[in-house]
Amino acid sequence: MRDLGFAGKVARAFINSKLTPLIVIASLLLGIFAIKMTPREEEPQIVVPMIDIFLPLPGATPAEVQERVVTPFERKLWEIKGVEYLYSMSRPGMGIITVRYLVGEDMERSLVKLYNKVMSNRKLLPPGAGEPLVAPKSIDDVPILAVTLWSDRYDHTMLRSVAKEICEELKKGDNVAEAQVTGGLSRQVRIVLDSGKLAARGISPLEVAAALHKGNASSASGSFSGDNREMLVHAGQFLQDVETVKHLVIAVRDSKPIYLQDVATVKDGVAESKDYVFFGLGPAAVTKGLQGNPHKDYAAVTISIAKRTGANATWVAEDLMKKVEFLKGKIIPADVQVTVTRNYGETAKEKNNELPDILHRHPG
Q1: Third-level CATH fold of 141-186+274-353
Q2: In terms of pLDDT, which residue wins out, 284 or 125?
Q3: Alpha carbon of 176 to those of 135, 169, 253, 311, 312: distances in Å?
Q4: Is residue 261 exposed (0-12), middle (13-18) or buried (19+ Cβ within 10 Å)?
Q5: Could you tell me which residues come within 8 angstroms of residue 334 by beta carbon, excluding any fewer than 6 positions away?
Q6: Nearest to residue 74, comparing CAs of 59, 61, 90?
Q7: CA Rg, the chain, in Å?
Q8: What's the average model confidence in pLDDT over 310-315?
């Protein structure tokens, strides 16, 4: 009989073995398990540590910031092993240095090394400079899900109030790293001082500001023990509502207290807007089940959610959408519409499902 060689003998052993079907079945099961359990991401999770360093220097020009703060720290940061690139930007009163490490460097170790280097060189900061701030950046800071609340009935203030409640509920998810609200108008107590009334009572605006600061504070004042128990004592409390603010004592004149409402107008209003979100309908709105006037821009707010590192984006997005559906009719009013404006998990799932077809068309 012809010599089969080493490869042929191995093949014949597997063909004749009764264990071969079991090995094939085990391999298939392991493959299915890997497909189900492998996290689905739209972009590959390549570890490239990037960290921002904020160096405040109030009152300085960009040229002064560059010469006195940014350049000295850049020289020191190059001493860190594993640093590949440094990017810097100087603007009035602030210097920003972005440190990028080599691919594959451990994020936590890189952050610790950088933090220690910055803090050990604080002596380089000129007089008047603020404390350095070290802030790491990663791909997981990018939101995987964004839902937009919009309505024909509610304004920016009411929508933000609803969105804040929804945001707090979504933050309770096990794999949610961060959730934030964009747009809308926040509630704010506005205080308008009356210069005439202040002058008549001999009170300066700085006294009013100091009184507000002291009145809106709470701190631990100690503790005492008794009957096998320890009681914690807190002094002061935060201002709860407009009436509390109005009756805040800001000074005492002729043994009589002067309240804030005596020298100012206190209103429960909204804060100045930092950003606005509007929602409009296009030609394809009907196919998506959206009802509204295509020629109108609706007041809206957007809730953005980022996941924890290593969590499956598809599963996290699906769990969050289930929770949003559950909140409809409870926290979300019936006349507030919810539209998904970004779903990273869904697009990652689609690309993952397309992969077998791509491999079939291009087996090489």
Answers
A1: Alpha-Beta Plaits (3.30.70)
A2: 125
A3: 19, 11, 53, 9, 11
A4: middle
A5: 328
A6: 90
A7: 30
A8: 80
